[in-house]
Specification:
Layout (H helix, E strand, L loop, with lengths): L1 E5 L5 H16 L3 E5 L9 H15 L1 H14 L7 H5 L1 H13 L4 E4 L2 H12 L6 E5 L16 E4 L5 H6 L7 E3 L14 H8 L6 E6 L8 H7 L1 H6 L3 E6 L4 H11 L5 E4 L5 H7 L2 E4 L3 H9 L4 E3 L6 H11 L4 E2 L3 H11 L3 H14 L4 H14 L1
Parallel strand pairs: 1-2, 1-3, 3-4, 4-5, 5-6, 7-8, 7-10, 8-9, 10-11, 11-12
Helix pairs in contact: 1-17, 2-3, 5-6, 8-12
Length: 373
């Protein structure tokens, strides 16, 4: 069986979910191809689309939140959205590509490819079964205007929201958000510390702002300084992702500080997550799910307004994280709260109850059953 798995380079989460699906599909003995539809344009269009999103999220998060809220308002109007029509031209190159390739199923972890495929269906192009994989704990604007066969959502909690936007209940399937097996297979902290060459006698706080290094990472590091001064056995690991400006800013302040370890992009995110005693992260759908899959205590910081505030709300409501909205007043209290083994135990239990780390496997099984009839 052969699957086409589509994503888009607007942040690393969608690509990480697509990679998890790809790895599981291959593990099951099938064939698969990962594709960003904008890469078919040439002229590095996929990079340009991704960079536009990343720059907005990094430098103008309030503007990004405003655009998201505009989408929430616009989706209530009759007719198709600007996002739908913006993807019309991309449908032309996608159609040419599909005429040269044959697949048994198409999965998308991003709205934009879903819109592109919807254009093709409206044109009467015959397509295999289409599966939309939601990567946030909410129904993001314009999901409802796509014409997919099934919508894989994070949990039954979100079912009513997706259906309220007109998606037929029989198409809504709560199977979870896919994360790579490396996050939940072998959760041995000591093994992860050894793989990374870290000091097993230290405790580690991990802080990241997603693949783009978004959020108030520099400010948060400064707020944590009194805690580090009180706890010389603690090391703060900061992963800056693609945000070179953030890395340079932090390096200027902490280059010679033995309690602060700075990294740019890393291929070992799973190992760092499993090695840490506490993870501070903006509430991306994928990064939050990865933390829960690894059973790591989680503090949510600096949500980008929109779907990330919905993610944080879901996690904090069910006790899977602590959300910090006022870092100067709340962050150190949250960190100290998670020094209590009983509080950590309650959080890990909640993560285990609500997050299925093997969602990629369940999704692959569902696709197999659906395609085979």
């Amino acid at each position: 069986m052969e699957a086409l798995i589509l994503s888009c380079a607007t942040g690393g989460g969608h690509n990480a979910a697509a990679r998890a699906l790809y790895e599981e599909w291959i593990r099951r003995g099938h064939r698969a191809e990962l594709l960003d539809p904008y890469a078919l344009y040439g002229r590095r269009m996929d990079k340009r689309v991704g960079n536009c999103y990343v720059q907005c999220a990094q430098k103008m998060p309030r503007l990004f939140g405003g655009i998201y809220q505009l989408g929430e308002w616009y989706r209530r109007l009759p007719g198709r959205s600007p996002v739908f029509w913006a993807n019309q031209k991309a449908a032309d190159v996608m159609q040419e590509y599909l005429e040269r390739h044959s697949y048994d199923a198409i999965l998308t972890t991003h709205l934009f490819p879903g819109e592109i495929l919807t254009h093709l269906r409206r044109r009467g192009v015959l397509l295999p079964k289409l599966f939309f994989i939601a990567t946030d704990y909410t129904c993001i604007p314009f999901t409802e205007e796509t014409a997919c066969d099934y919508y894989i959502i994070p949990s039954p909690v979100q079912r009513q929201e997706f259906c309220s936007w007109g998606i037929p209940p029989e198409k809504v399937v709560p199977l979870g958000i896919p994360v790579r097996r490396v996050f939940w297979e072998n959760r041995d902290r000591d093994r992860a510390i050894g793989q990374l060459g870290l000091n097993p006698r230290k405790r580690y706080l991990l802080m990241a702002g997603g693949s783009m290094g978004a959020g108030k990472i520099f400010q948060t590091a400064r707020i944590l300084q009194p805690y580090l001064s009180e706890h010389r056995e603690v090391v703060l690991i900061v992963i800056c992702g693609t945000n070179q400006r953030l890395y340079d800013q932090l390096a200027g302040q902490y280059r010679n500080d033995p309690q602060v370890l700075l990294l740019q992009r890393t291929e070992h995110m799973a190992e760092y997550v499993k090695a840490c005693d506490l993870y501070l992260s903006k509430p991306g759908g994928i990064s939050s799910t990865e933390a829960a899959a690894a059973n790591v205590p989680l503090i949510h910081i600096s949500p980008i307004p929109g779907c990330e505030t919905k993610n944080q709300s879901f996690f904090t409501k069910y006790g899977m994280s602590i959300g910090v909205s006022r870092p100067k007043k709340e962050l150190l209290r949250a960190v100290r709260q998670l020094e209590d083994p009983e509080a950590v135990g309650r959080m890990i239990d909640a993560q285990r109850r609500l997050i299925d780390p093997s969602a990629a496997e369940r999704i692959a099984e569902f696709v197999e059953r659906t395609v085979e009839g």
